[in-house]
Amino acid sequence: MQLDRRQFLKLTGLAGAGLLGAGALTPAKARLGKGAGQGPFAEGAWLASCCNMCGGQTGIMCQVVDGRLVRIKPNVHNPNGFSNISEDFFANAATEGAVMCPKGNAGIMALYDPDRLKTPLRRTTPEKGIGVDPGWKAISWEEAYGEIVSRLKALRESGEAHKLLWFSEDHSFTHVQADFCKLYGTPNYNMHSNLCDVGRKASFKILMGDERPLIDAINARYMLIFGWNPLSATKWAHLPRIVTRGIEQGAKLVVVDPHLSYTASKAHEWIPIRPGTDGALALALAHVILRDGLYDTAFVNEWVTGFEPFKDYVKDKTPQWAGEITTVPAERIEKLAREFAGTKPALVDVWSGTHHSNGVYAGWAIGALAAITGNIEKPGTLVMPEAKGGKHIEVEADETAKNTLKQPRLDGGKDRWPYFHKSGVYTEIINRLGDGNTPYQPKMAMVVFQNLLMSVMGTKNVEKALKTLEFIVVVDTMMSETAEFADIVLPGTTYLERYDLNTHWVTWPVVGLRQPVVQPLFGQPAESEFVCELGRRMGLKEANGNDLFRLGRMSGQNIEDKSRWYEEWLSKELKEGEPKMTLEELKNLPGATWVSTKGTRYHKHLDVIPPEKMADSIVEGGLVFSKKKDGSKDKPLGMVRADGTAVRGFLTPSGKVELYAAKHEGKKNAEGEPLKLLPEYEPRQWQPSAEYPLYLINWKEASQTHSRTQNNAFLAELKVTDGLRINTKTAASLGIRSGDWIWVESPHGRIKMRAELTEGIHPEVVGTQHGWGHWAMGRTAKGRGAHTGFLAPTQADPISGQALNKEICVRLSKA
Amino acid sequence: MIQTTATRPSITAGNLPSRAASYLVFARLMREAPSTDLLKFITGQEVLEASETEKVAVQYARLFLVPGDEAVRPYESVYCDALTIDTSTACSPYFPSSSHKISLNGYLGGPSSTAVREVYRQAGLDLAPASHELPDHLAIELEFMGRLLERRQTEQGKMFFHDHLARWVYDCLHQIKQKTDSGFYQSLTEKLEQFLLSEQALFST
Predict the structure, then answer these.
(1) Mind telling me how many Å the CA of B30 is from chain A's nearest CA?
(2) Domain coordinates of chain A in residue numbers?
(3) Which of A66, A281, A815, B27 is buried deepest, with most CB atoms within 10 A?
(4) Sign for the pseudo-dihedral over CA of A323, A326, A327, A331
(5) Is the pLDDT confidence value at B92 over 80?
(6) Is residue B69 domain-resident?
(7) What is the pLDDT of residue B130?
(8) Which of A12, A31, A37 sits opposite B21 (nearest CB)?
(9) Which residues have CB under 8 Å from A733's CB, separation 6+?
(10) A121-195+390-595 sits in which CATH class?
């Protein structure tokens, strides 16, 4: 189609007529002051906020000149970015200054990314699939809301609200989304965590009743890290500082990892290990410690349960036994055990190294090393954080919603997964959608900042699953691979354009505010406001008739302006939560961060339960529980010590650290197998074979977050490790040279990658940084590296629902 | 078919309303995909299948709204500005300890966007709240030119044309022509380029 010249000229004479519509310019209300066109680092306002380039929420200061963000710096008032221990923070932050990671620096690029989505889009190509052009066209917000709401209404009105699947980030505006799902009536609200660390959560919950103990690295004298890269995979920007400071103060760092990670490269010792065998190594270490009487008798006697059965179990888990399994020489295991047990305080930890089928038990076995050496809740050990912040105010669903909330979750929920996490089990949802083995067929999905195609392993399975849904809405700042499967895509906001409260991952109560430092670039609503608008248009109400999405939670008045409505929502959460202040008051604190002066507390298991709490409690079998209104037993409060005092203890069934889990008796995992009572080692399910002889692993580094930041040109320029790392000996045996293009093949698919030869990877293992291989997203991301998801099955650990991101075997050939 | 060569400027200096209208028409066509009525008018077709309008809308999105091989970002900041990052405070294995700054081109919301907004405000105009667009988008800069000429503010128009539009618009139009397969947007771009060249000639006298 071409423009007609004569008509065009005629039209120019008719420009005032209706065909052109209203323009974008309108009479100005105010004039800008001077200052436009100044240099990039001119003065301006400095606004405190929190980063969200990853889930770490590091404190940041944002310099805004004439409405433009020009610089991001660390926020020295926020412990997250300095230290997770209060003594260190209070004494040194002001003089030393805080830090950010490169992703934090690069946040400006995310805000001003030229590939950002700017308007709602609707697909015109009905067919969906990888490589299918959706044929996007712009639609108005009104049209987008209209269609989404009419589909949501139709589901709810026909009693099918549970057929809405909702996927979201796990640390951003989750309360408002969860509440929407509850009032709407779907039990299928899911979050990212089950791709991340629910395996670790289960391990430590079994062990000590706390899902996320943190390392007090700065006070440690020995650090034994399994499958974690804290110096580079900086979930919290203070990690490199506290680990290296610990080393400066005399700590020894030992890293167990199949790959010479950045942390391993800075360690005193790197112990390359065969993937999936960390549990065996931990058990052998325990064997030596117990055999040689190197354990902490006092701690074990009072605070550990199941010591004898554990000791019996590890009796034959000798260094020789583990040596064959792990490839770590027996004498090295002996030495490591003696070093670890002989140095106090020592810490031991594991993170995403447990993304394999023995992962939860391995994590438990690793945690057991802390238990038998008494390295729990002391300075320089594993510490249970007091993460108290804003309070999620409970809402009650109405009768319509209650009916569909009764439906089973698509992933089977806690009935299926003994350590089910509220984030759901993505892999199970994908598999059930794909094979049709479901109690009901979901119809609609709302996907908020989740790129399922790149983050859930088994890419072809994810593709198949998404194709079964009638209608998909994706909210994202970028055209992710998953967005390309959407029927409607809505432009989201970056963390620099919206609010959030961050209860930080330090060991004492701290709340950092994330606030909009600039207005959303394209006038789009913040996600909280989008959900609010849906709620309003749906007319969703609480059981008591409250208009949740209109009612100002502080003023009790209806508030039309959704931004103000959400400000009141946050104020209420802060008021009812630990800080007991309004949003405005939090904003006015230095660095917009509330820092409890109570500080880090150790030995919290010795906290005496206050008499007034004891008076209103139930004591049963030496354990203390709170009471429900009807007088029945509620939550565990603690336990009674031998001397009769009631203390917090550990929030496990025994009140102690558990090396033997009696609670597992008679329970089964998602595959119907009995739960193990001890942290047993079992070979992971997928072992190398003659056909697929190599383990394939992946890892994270400071330069990128998951599969989310690869379009950031600044980060891409920093370092591109998008090739496949191969041990030089392994490569030589295959005739592969550095820089060669090679096929990486599994039974599930094959991808092409560039060979990177190194001594820094176990000879039986090849690996790459996760997140590359985008085929959408934007000009920088697209076409770099390869996505290992094509090579993997879609599988979860049957205990916790943790996605098994690292259980793949492959073969290599020259391309 | 449009004749792309040997076209002399047909809009004279004296014909300000017509020039202003041209800016406004081009602004509208660059701002969003045309409606069916507008499309009928400018293509001279009395009957138009709905699918034709949709086709142009998809072409518009492919060019200006979604990333991809055909994507062009019609913003002055993308063509003229560099975004500077101060890396001195990063705790990263990748940075040396010394402070340094890194500049990258091709980003939205650069100093140009603030600068043009300031010019609009000096002229008593601002972005409408419902416009959902950045101030240095091609469509907005064209619309501003149209508004100035409507008010016969030719001196301001000349200044804005030289200070802003002419700095980048030809590069941008060149990219559009290179990237798009759309006949509609090829010919629209041709016409806009001719028009702007004729404007440049007028402003240079």
Answers:
(1) 11
(2) 45-111, 121-195+390-595, 214-383, 604-664, 694-814
(3) A281
(4) negative
(5) no
(6) yes
(7) 84
(8) A12
(9) none
(10) alpha beta
